[in-house]
Design a protein that fits this description.
This protein is of the alpha+beta class. Helices cover 22% and strands 41% of the residues.
Amino acid sequence: MNFEKVQSVILEVGKILGADPENPLKITKANQPMDKQIYPYGSYNVLVLTQDPEKSASKFVEPKDDQEFYDVTRKNDQATISLTFLHSTSIAKCFSLSQKAMNWFDSEAGLAKCEEFGITPQIASGDIADRTIVLDGLQIEYKAGFDVYFKSREVTKTPTKKTASAPKVQFEEEE
C-alpha cells in the first residue's frame, strides 16, 4: 500500500474535523519527534501492513492493440491504522473528534473521498477507546481513538510485445 495514499486520507480527515477546510485539525504521524502541538490534535500510526506476496498476486495479459500487450499484476493490500485524538483538558473533546472521524469513514462522502486515493476504509469495531496517559509531573494528556482498516488494490501494468502467435487454422467446406 502506498504510504502517501494513507497520508492523503489522514489529511482529509483533518480537513473534515477542522474549524473550516482552510484550518484543518493537525494530525501527525505518531511517535515522531515534533514541536509542541496545540490542542486538540490527532495522531495516527500504521499498526499492521499486509501485502499479497508477489507469487500469489493475480497476473494476466491485457491487450493494448494487435501487437502490444500489458503484463498486469494485481495485489491486494491491507493496513490497520490507529487514529487517536489528544487534548490537554477534555476527554469529551477527544471522544467527540473520534466519533466525527469514525462517522466520516462510514459515510458515503468519506468512502468516495478515500476511494479517490485507491483506499477502501472499514471501521475495525466501532469502539472508541480511552487512551489517556499521565505525563511527567502528573500532567494528564487525554486521548481517545479507534482503529480503521484500509484496503487497497495495487495494479501495475508493464508494456510487453507479442512473443508468440497461435497457429492459423483454415477451414475448408466439404462438398
